[in-house]
């Protein structure tokens, strides 16, 4: 059976959009009709990957980052989140009525569901982690309340042995069915280059202001190192260079894979989608968790003992001891 699917993606850096690429491609290969909906750089990336698909711009959630902890930011602005979700539901209702969608798949956009469509939510984070047990419990309850509005939850992980997401999506239940769909990545194996063009490639993503703070910390470090270094900024810019550092904007998967194939060392946040990509590539990386993002800090610690990744702190970032 061919479905008319509206695929909605959260604009929170590029992770949700990048992991959606193989899912969207798989649905297209099965013969389904797809339209995409998002905002910001996530929508820019999806339009680059799927220029022939109909696309819609949704209203941004517009969460302001007053605190380091994302969970605290969300809880402190839950009124804004719920207002955004209510507005999003109205946008989705209009699109369903106008275009006749019979299924909605939403990667972490909580208002993208409709009573007349099978509505699926994609997330790797059912349990919101925080060092404070009260904040963790409150955040998780709110998250589960929003997830249970859908008909089904897809987790991009494997069900056995806590998988890649660990406590975030294992040993916890929802009122709706949970389906583990396996890890999702745009990439296949990318071996180490014999003659690398760049000593490092830094792949930036995530919300401001931490994205820019990470870029500034990297620039200060890379200027002290020999060789050429590449920074993929994760936003729409014209390419330019400054000394031994080359800056490029958003890249679709084939272009980004080529740049990674020309680079000796990968530097990245420890976001869930990035870790899925590195597993698919078979490449180790230097992971720098976003300060205050308990999820990234947890993932870095969770994966480091069973991988060759190196974990560094942004606050005391010094690449001289790990890049030779």
From TrEMBL:
Extract one GO molecular function annotation from the record: hexosyltransferase activity
* Residue ranges annotated for the Glycosyl transferase family 28 C-terminal domain, each copy included: 251-320
What Pfam families does the record tag this protein with?
Glyco_tran_28_C (PF04101), Glyco_trans_1_3 (PF13528)
Record's keyword annotation contains Transferase: yes
Return the InterPro entries for the record: Glyco_trans_28_C
Does Transferase appear among the keywords? yes
* Keywords recorded for this protein, A-Z: Transferase
The organism's superkingdom is given as Bacteria
Q: How is this protein named in the record? A: Glycosyl transferase
Organism this protein belongs to: Portibacter lacus
Q: Specify the taxonomic lineage.
A: Bacteria, Pseudomonadati, Bacteroidota, Saprospiria, Saprospirales
